[in-house]
Every structure is written in structure tokens, then in C-alpha cells.
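Hi there. Long-time user, first ticket. I'm pasting a complex I've been working with (about 714 residues overall). I'd like to know whether the download I got is complete or cut off, because the file seemed smaller than I expected. Thanks.
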Amino acid sequence: MKVSLFITCLGDVFYPYVGKDTVEILERLNCEVVFPKNQTCCGQPAYNSGYHKETKDVAKHMIKTFEQSDYIVSPSGSCVTMFHEYVHLFDHDKEWQEKAQSLANRTFEFTQFIVDVLKVENVGASFSKRATYHTSCHMSRLLGVKDAPMKLLENVKGLELSNLPNKEICCGFGGTFSVKMVPISEQMVNEKIEHIEETDAEVLIGADCGCLMNIGGRIERQGKPIKVMHIAQVLNSRG
Amino acid sequence: MPMKIGDVEFFGRVDKGLRNSFMRNAVVSAQERLKGAKLNAAEELGDWEEWRNLSEEIRQHTLENLDYYLEELTENVCKQGGHVFFAQTAEEANEYITRVSKEKKAKKIIKSKSMVTEEISMNDALEALGCEVIESDLGEYILQLDDHDPPSHIVAPALHKNKEQIRETFSEKKGYKKTSKPEELALFAREQLRADFLSADIGITGCNFAVAESGAISLVTNEGNARLSTSLPKTQITVMGMERIVPTWEELDILVSMLCRSAVGQKLTSYITGLIGPKDKGDVDGPEEFHLVILDNGRSNILGTEFQSALHCIRCAACINVCPIYRHIGGHSYGSIYPGPIGAVLSPLLGGYEDYKELPYASSLCAACTEACPVKIPLHDLLVKHRRNIVEEHGKGTFGEKLAMRGFSLAASSPKIFSMGSKSAPTVMSPFIKDGKVKKGPGPIKPWTDIRDFPEPSKQSFREWFKKRDKGGDQ
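Hi, the file is complete. Here it is re-exported in full:
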């Protein structure tokens, strides 16, 4: 099965190791991974800030970039959600709306792809740590991917997974919200970290680099000993 | 603008809210309590999503035929001896209500809880006339005694106050001498209010839903105060937003169930009252005169626009009760009597962007509100639409932001520029990196690093790594 990887801008620049783990897992599951090199960003920063004309240009570019791909897989629920959102950007442009719909139909979040398309729930990982999982809002609420990451994590050997209290509450990232509304975002991420601490986890696992950058950045600023990892890193662990 | 609370600017209000640790504790514990109650109440009903779909359909159908149902309602109210007044603005509504009060030579007016009368500042208009207006909902009564403190929640207006504060208010304003036990406080308020119910000349209520087919209005409370406000005084005035209407009792049944379950996690509240016009010959209680004021105040401008679904709102506050922003800043920070996600959508629609331009940004777009809404208003989507209007139609984006977004769009549509940018990131960021982290970032990263560390751009980007490996390859 040929899979086109959409790495996302954060993944490309700040978290290439998440991309590497994603590629290795997919290849182990007999996928041929290709990287359409013209890919850029999903356009979410502009879209959520209200710059929709500008987002349309980005959307058209990404639609063209992935036009030939059978399956598009990305290690970010939020960016995949944005691909699904393109359809609404072209409400008055039938031609592009159809193309946007086709893009959405072919695009999957990484864990969703493994569980729902490849029908695999055990990727053979082992990771002996106490951990808890952060459900990203866009991925769970808007994309509707709730069970896939949990199924995969439950089958990780040695992983002691505990439930994160108030897991459905946003971590305070929200893209530009995190820099436009700093005092509010600060209280939200503080509360998230308090809940993570309640679980006594050594590791916080998530499936969206945006949330992880926010929670991880605040944990580091507070000097707390909690490690933040993307789910691809955990699923590619063998120790 | 009557809807507006105070003159402090947005971040000043937020700062005040964040410092109010008592209010924050109260909000968090209310959200936690209501979350569980609502989940149970929804589960009992069976397929909650089906009920939401049905409720949305009812609201859509009603709004698409609003002119028809309003006419039917008006005919039926008049047929039963009531008076109907259509108020286009808050001023027109207040003018009518004060005129009726003057005609009745009213000295004392008893009120049940109503957000729409808050929206038009009706109490101020009546007080200017010399009437004494008494709020009979316990929460509103407390706020009124406390020097007209504005409501901070659309269902529980005094959510931001604790029992100690309430005891202080009662003792300072009414000579209360007992403890802060809720039962004793409630009993005291009840005794005080009973005398007011008996002596009021006019009773004023809001309206949860009007029923077009019968010309009835329905009132949903847990205190029974709306029932008393409508049975003792000789004149009743009911004020409703023009969208708060259902075609028949059948739809009322469904929406009231959704309202009670979503608002407070109850199957039904203690009192659900359906009232038709003034009392008939032979009725022992009820008003001799009934006036229905139907308020537009900007609502008809929303009809037919992409914001129409905001008028689906049944004022249950489910969105407020799950909102992580409201959770920390509380209701007053929104600067509108309509707080939380629905307030952030509705306030700019009814009151304009000038006063409420920050509200659409006071959301992380986590969509908890959209998921909670029993009539399926896509609240987070509407907030994004507001942001688009602010930027594209009102040109209110800052110059720097516009420039940044044009630059972003240009780069993200051009792979060459984009990869140049990502390649240069490590070099550009290198002066700011200490121990592999950015502690004090430049430009747009500065607010980020005010409270968090920013990661160091990787020396080798993912795309460079992928290009160099022997498998897969670029496409």
C-alpha cells in the first residue's frame, strides 16, 4: 500500500523524529511511504485567524500537491481536521469543493489509519513507563478519532496507562490563541499539568504536536520531570 | 448598549476575573457538578444524538417559518384577550412596558428571571419611572440586592458568589441575622419575597418558549417564582425574543426536555408552566390583563445569514458549562450579559463588533461548546466566521498580522519559499537558543515564551532526512 506522508510544518521543522518514527512504523506495516516534496502547511494559522482568502491559496496548493495520492497520512489530528475543513472554504466553488472532498476522503490521522484502514491494533511496541494520554480536541471532537490511539496504546507491552482526569478539557493551545490570549492559555495549561501530575505519570503521550508543544513548553518552564512524547515515538519503541 | 457590562477593556476584565480565586473555584465546581448531571440526564433519554438532531430540525423549521408562526401566535394571543406588541428595538420595548406601567399606576413590579429583559435594561427604564422592581429568582434577587451586580451566567446568574458573600449581602441590605446555611438563606429570601408577590401591581416574566398553535407562553423554573409572578398581580407582561417560539405543544415537550437536561441535568425542572392569556371568567387566579412583548433588537438581521443557527439557542448554557475559557475567566470578563461561547457568538451579532471584537478570539476553538449544544449550533465555526468578518469585512486585523498572514499564505503556497524558510529556521533562531530551548523569543514567539519554552528548530528538517535516506524517496 502506497502512503503519502503529510509531515506538517511543526513536524518538519521542530519534530523530525516524530516523522521518522511514523515512517518506520508504516513501513513495518508494509506500507510504501512517499513524501510529496511540494507540501507546506495545512493553512490553519490563517484560517483560524479569519484570513480565509489567504487560506484558499494554501488549500489549493495542498490539494494539488496530494492530488495523486491514494492515502495521505499525517501524525497530527488537528492538521488532518484542517484538510477536512477545506470543503467549507469552497462553498461557492464547486470544482474546488469536489477536489477538497476527495482530499478529505483520502486523508487519515496516523493512528486512525493504522486501526481503521490497516486493521492493525498491535504494532509490537514495548515501552515500560507509567504514562497518561492527552486527547486533542480537534482530533477527538471534530475528526471523531477517539478509540484508535487507545487501542494501539493498550497493546504496548509494559506500558502502564492511567486515565487523565478531565481529559476532554482543552490544554490551552488553540493555535494563535496561545499567543493572543496568553493569560487565559496559561491558566488552561496549568490546570492540564495539574491533572497530568495527579496520575503520577512519567510520560505524557499525545497525537498532536501543537498540544504537545504547548504542554511540553509549559512543563519545561516549570521545571517539572514529566516527559512529553508523540504517540508515534511510543509505538516505535522497542525497549 | 444595554447588553454591555461596565467600561473596562477586555484584558482588564480578564485580569480581574483571573485574580478572583473565589469566583474561579465556584465556576469550576459548578462545571464539574453540571457535567456529571448532564451526562446522566442525556444517557437516560437513549440516543442523545438523535434527540439533538430532532431538536435542531425543530429549531431550523421554526426559524425558516418564523413569520408564519409569529402571526399564528399573535392571532391566538389576541383571540384569548391578550395584547401583543412587536418591538423592533430595546427602546421600543421599554417604551411600551413603561406605558403599560404608567397606565396601571404601578408602584411595585415583581419579576421572574429573564435574560431578554437584561438585554434591554428594562429595570432601569422602570426604575426611572419611579417603580420599584423586584427580582424574584433567588440568584437575581441576590444580585439586585448587591447593588445591581450583573449576572455572570445565563441560567445561574449569581454563580460567581458564595454563601458567605450572600449572607453578607442579606445582612447589610436586609438586616439578616442568621447563618450562611443555604436553607436559612433561601427561607429568608422566600419570606421577604412573599410580601412582594402579594403587593405587586404588575408581574413581568421572560418566556422560555411561546407555543404558536395555542398562544401560550411557557416558563421553566425550579423555584416556582414565575408561577407566582403570573398568578397574583393583576397585570402580566411577558417579554420574549422573537425566536423563542415553537409550533405546537409537541415540539415544546421535546425542547423543554432538552433544555432541562442540558441546563441542570434534570429530567424536568420543579415547575414548568404553560399559560394562556388573561384569566377567564370563573378562574380564581391569574392576571386580568396580559401583554406579550415580542422583541427583535437585531435578531431579524441574523435571519437568513450564515449566523442564523445562533438563533436556535434555547439558553440552556450547556456551552458555558463546558467552556474551558469561561471556566477560568468567569462571566463578567465577557463584558456582555451573554457570556461564554454563545455570548461570544451572539454579543457581536446583537451589539456590533466595536464593543465585542475580542470575544470571537476568546476561544481555543476546542469545540466543546459545539459538542454540548442540544440544538447543534456550530458555535466554534461561528466564532471563526466572526474572525473572518472582523478581518475581511471590517478590516480590523492589525497591519502586522495582515502582513504576516499574506507572507504565510505566499510561503505556504510556494514550496520553494516554504522550504527556504524552514531551512533557515535554525540559523534565524540560533541567537535565542540556550540549552536547546528558546526562553525569550523574538517577534511573534515572544508572547509564547512569556510563559513557556519554545523548541529549538531541528538542525536537520524531516524533509532533508527523508531525501537522504535510501528508501521511499521524494515524490
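A couple of notes from our side: The two ends of chain A are 28 Å apart (CA to CA). Residues 39 and 67 of chain A are 11 Å apart (CA to CA).
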